[in-house]
Design brief:
There is one protein chain. By secondary structure, this protein is of the alpha/beta class. It has four domains: about 5-35; about 50-195 and about 200-225 and about 310-430, Rossmann fold (3-Layer(aba) Sandwich), CATH 3.40.50; about 225-305, no CATH class; about 440-560, no CATH class. It contains 17 helices and 26 strands. The strands form seven sheets. A ten-stranded mixed sheet has the order 1-19-2-16-15-3-6-8-7-14, sandwiched between helices. Helix 11 (about 340-350) crosses helix 12 (about 370-380). It is globular. The N and C termini lie far apart (about 75 Å).
């Protein structure tokens, strides 16, 4: 692997000695080479099998209904677990979540050469001469899509170690831009030294941080807040606090009196007037029954509201060993190597998420990201939603990612018999990928729209299906209607149904502007159309009550931005569509 400036320099040398070129031709070619940027990465692209499938097929999602974990809480966040190769899942998310993800965390393969990185069903070892090129090709495709998924306030966090840190930094500079770089933090991944033959034991790794917008700033939080440190033994109305010593070597020297009458002369952190101001404000406590040296209160609420920007040394956010112990407590056995600790993800989410943020992890592995999301929601009353993507190699998705978070939601008992209450105010839905041919025949387009229903539920975050629209009873192969009392959508698979739908909308729906915060929004209608026409003329009389989207054009448009180019065909023949008699309705109202 060579950098671009080296490659260009080699080509320029060859052009300078190449026969058969005029001076003008030689000068023009050298000029073109010198126009390219002089710094960056060059690698030989290695096609992936999963990418080759995308040349001919479009991915969609199908919900595995019997794996759904549904909360009784009507406002429970809908979390999503996708069992899929992540490049295919990312393509799907370009339709459902483009520009909507606030936090992306990924823990990709580190490419150690020790059977941690699989490329086209084979492990990449240290003897592979294309080891780094394969990894860069693999990561580049995924990071480019990840950038498109980030919101304007979005930030991506990437765990990595020394094997690919330098390459990943250069790659991210290219994908996200140098000015998008936030930090390269070091985190302690082990509490103890490994027993290695090296002189220096590696107990750290890194988290690279990039943001979508240069202007965006991460939230201010205290680095490494441990909630267990904050208590409220005297029921202070300002809430939980921890205490710190008032003494300080080199500080101001004066005498203070404890509640028991003891006089203590020390060097103090505060000036004398500041100390007595804190004492008056009930911010000073005396341990040992009022006999000990004074300590001052630090309130959790104040730390979270006005703390300092995080630092780059993350040494107290939990180790991978602690992550492994927690995972074993939940699922009962050791099923995953080096799972990340909840503390790390909790801290990352605090740096760049708000109550209603959407979080994505497309190397989900043990599922720590969802666990941390649900735990943080429980702490601060948030409604964050999390999307996990992982393949099912060695049954990881089913037996680790899904099972872990299923138990976190429902509650579990540790191997030592300790019962842990579930985070029941969460819903988890499980999906797998299906594929539809990219050939744009009538048959394939209808199949794509029919298969896209689960995508649309995810896109609209709307899952409650109704059998009727007003008094119109619907046949699921003709149209489906979803309504959660706040928003609603309809999917019309057969255009012959449109006029009947319009009549029912005129009769039963009250118009609501899209900008209105309260009340049901306008009915969003996804309608099959072989082109881009969403039958606006048919809906003219109810245009103030509906929002129309033509399918599958909207899906094609989103996918086209990220799908690999198709291989050219000499000719393509479309078979005529078979018309099915339209027994459209049953049980209609008067």
């Amino acid at each position: 692997m060579k950098t671009k400036d080296f490659v260009a320099a080699d080509l320029i040398k060859k052009l300078q000695t190449l026969e058969g070129l005029t001076n003008d031709e030689r000068s023009n070619l050298i000029g073109l080479l010198r126009q390219h940027k002089k710094y960056g990465l060059v690698w030989e692209d290695k096609p992936e099998d999963v990418e080759e499938r995308l040349r001919e097929s479009l991915p969609v999602l199908r919900e595995v209904k019997d794996k759904a974990i549904l909360s009784d809480e009507p406002d429970a966040p809908n979390h999503i677990l996708i069992e899929a190769e992540n490049l295919q899942a990312l393509v799907v998310l370009t339709y459902t979540h483009a520009g909507m993800i606030d936090v992306i965390y990924i823990d990709p393969p580190y490419n150690t050469g020790n059977k941690d990185f699989v490329y086209n069903d084979s492990f990449v070892d240290t003897d592979d001469s294309y080891r780094h090129s394969k990894w860069l090709s693999f990561m580049s495709k995924r990071l480019k899509i990840a950038k498109a998924l980030l919101s304007d306030k979005g930030v991506i966090f990437i765990s990595i170690d020394d094997n690919e840190l330098a390459n990943l930094k250069l790659l991210c500079d290219e994908v996200f831009g140098n000015s998008a770089f936030v930090a390269c933090t070091a985190r302690r991944r082990r509490k103890s030294q490994a027993n290695l033959s090296k002189n220096i034991s590696t107990i750290h790794e890194y988290v690279l941080i990039y943001k979508k917008s240069e202007e965006h700033e991460l939230k201010k939080v205290e680095a490494n807040i441990d909630l267990a440190d904050y208590k409220n033994p005297d029921n202070d109305p300002r809430g939980a606090y921890k205490t710190m010593p008032c003494t300080n070597r080199g500080g101001t020297k004066y005498s203070v009196k404890t509640p028991t009458g003891r006089i203590i002369q020390e060097e103090w952190r505060f000036k004398e007037e500041t100390y007595y101001s804190l004492l008056k404000d009930n911010r000073i406590v005396f341990p040992k029954g009022g006999e000990g040296k004074p300590r001052y209160k630090i309130f959790l609420s104040e730390k979270e509201k006005g703390g300092v920007i995080d630092n780059s040394w993350w040494d107290d956010l939990g180790s991978n060993q602690e992550g492994a112990m927690l995972l074993e407590e939940i699922v009962g056995k050791d099923l995953f190597n080096n799972p990340k600790p909840v503390g790390l993800l909790n801290h990352i989410l605090k740096l760049n998420s708000v109550d209603d943020s959407t979080i994505l992890d497309f190397f989900a592995g043990s599922g720590t990201t969802l666990h941390a999301t649900m735990q943080l929601n429980a702490e601060d009353g948030g409604h964050r939603q999390c999307i996990l993507v992982t393949n099912n190699e060695n049954n990881i998705c089913e037996e680790v990612t899904y099972e872990r978070n299923k138990r976190v939601i429902q509650g579990y008992t540790t191997p030592k018999g300790v019962k842990v209450e579930g985070l029941k105010q969460n819903t988890l839905r499980y999906y797998k990928t299906d594929f539809i041919s990219r050939d744009r025949t009538q048959k394939n387009m209808r199949a794509l729209v029919a298969a896209a229903t689960d995508l649309l539920c995810i896109k609209e975050d709307l899952y409650e299906e109704r059998a009727t629209l007003g008094r119109l009873k619907l046949k699921p192969h003709l149209a489906r209607y979803f309504n959660d009392g706040r928003k609603h959508m309809m999917i019309i698979y057969r255009e012959e149904l449109i006029d009947e739908v319009v009549e029912e909308i005129k009769r039963s729906l009250t118009p609501k502007p899209l900008s209105e915060e309260r009340g049901v929004e306008r009915l969003k209608i996804y309608v099959f159309s072989p082109g881009r026409y969403a039958f606006t003329d048919n809906f003219r009389e109810v245009e103030d009550k509906v929002e129309l989207v033509a399918l599958p054009a909207a899906i094609y448009d989103a996918y086209q931005k990220v799908l690999p180019k198709r291989k050219e065909k000499l000719f393509e023949e479309e078979k005529p569509e078979i018309k099915i008699p339209t027994d459209l309705f049953e049980g209609q109202g008067e």
